[in-house]
Amino acid sequence: MGTLTAALMIPSKLKPDSITENKPSYFLHRARRRTKKNQSIVPVARLFGPAIFEASKLKVLFLGVDEKKHPGKLPRTYTLTHSDITSKLTLAISQTINNSQLQGWYNRLQRDEVVAQWKKIKGKMSLHVHCHISGGHFLLDLFARLRYYIFCKELPVVLKAFVHGDEDLFNNYPELEDALVWVYFHSNIPEYNKVECWGPLKESSSPPGGPTGTHKMENEDKLDTPRPCSEDCSCCFPQVSLIPWPQNLPTQVDGNQQNLVSGASLHDG
């Protein structure tokens, strides 16, 4: 998700500095060419180039989980973060979100983490993925539209990292790749504060081929966000969400929008 860093660094219109103003025209021309190459082309290439998963750049941490245990019986979550220094991804697979990955001023500034959890709802397994688009500070709000685009572009890589990093689980339970993926975009801007169904995991973890650049299902507006039974039961697990978030998310129900209420931020306390 390092492209989110580039989004915060793209210059608008660079002014010539005082050093070059009094230099001969040939020096000014060379200086301008060097500035364009270093500060404009590279960030744009990172932002809009193809999203490719590289297994060699993925570090996986297993924290108190067992690949022999089905996620419908033992809680299983994914916490994925990116380092702009090493360009590597770190994936923690644990029973609860690995909050230690999300601490520090850099992570609070960037908010480029992706967290997910497996849920069994009314007997059906599904993967619920959460991304923070905006809210928290003005830079995130300023680039909300671009952040939404980048998350959509990078999510197939994220999902591929989940499958690759947790390969023993999928080898033991290959039917999990048929589970639907629900993506929750959290934002203080209504346009980007929403839930999308991206279809089966085995399809949504492949590069998108449609004109929209995402894996949103064609009949998505006819699907209801899965919600567990209101009373204790054996067909839903876990009973409590392992990923608390501060916003209310609208969900489509028979063409009308309702709110899916959630709890506190991952970065709180």
TrEMBL record:
Residues 53-203 form the Staygreen protein domain. It is found in: Plastid, Chloroplast. Its main location: plastid. This is Staygreen protein domain-containing protein. It comes from the Eukaryota. InterPro entries: Staygreen. Belongs to the staygreen family. Residues 203-230 are annotated as: Disordered. PANTHER family: LP06106P, PROTEIN STAY-GREEN 1, CHLOROPLASTIC-RELATED. It holds the Pfam family Staygreen. Residues 215-225 have a biased composition (Basic and acidic residues). Keywords: Chloroplast, Plastid, Transit peptide. The keyword Transit peptide applies.
